[in-house]
Amino acid sequence: MVMDLQIISWVFGCQDVGWRCIMLTTLSAVVTQWLRDHYTGKKDAVASVFVREDAVTAGTAFVEDVLTSIFHQLCVGHVEAHEDEAYVAKYRLYLDARKHGHRDIFRIKLIRDALESRLGMLDHAFLVIDDFDRCSPAVDLFLENELAILANQSRLKVLITSRVSCLKDVPTAQYCDSCDDEEDAAKFLFVYWRCDSCRRKKWKPAHILCQGCRDKGKTCVNW
């Protein structure tokens, strides 16, 4: 499978890409492997999470498990860890909190602190999450908030894939809302950017950008 230029664009300059694809799990696996093959330095790390069951209840436990899995994966290539390194010390605080039964919100804060410390040591960090729509809206929002905090505080780039629910209207076409050229505006998009503010505030339809318009610095006109 040939790596699409849009994926390469995301790797080098993007944080979130909207995909409409019937083989998203395969896509996620291919992207993950491609990243691991191309980012092999001591300060490079790639993590992936494939959601296989619906996450409707026990949202804090799910988010904690996801963050812990990400932390472990980001540490795989770091074989020279020393006890006095900040991220190791912070992870031990998290383990102690689990051992003594501290509240889940407190534990999540501790594992997030350990993650931020580890991410601060990396030049390149990538996270691929597949089948994100298995999360309930509450869990979705909770996890997105945690990922946003990590991404804002580090070089972490996050790629999230999700399917269109069979209970929702499947879009028959997707076009860029910002293309000035009529020919470009009429092109059907398989890869696109969707405004996160529109999505969060349930603005319909959400503003869509093609990669070309985003590279030109165009933004959503709804806000």
TrEMBL record:
InterPro entries of this UniProt entry? NPHP3-like_N
Where does the record place the Nephrocystin 3-like N-terminal domain? 25-163
Record keywords, A-Z: Repeat
This protein is called Nephrocystin 3-like N-terminal domain-containing protein
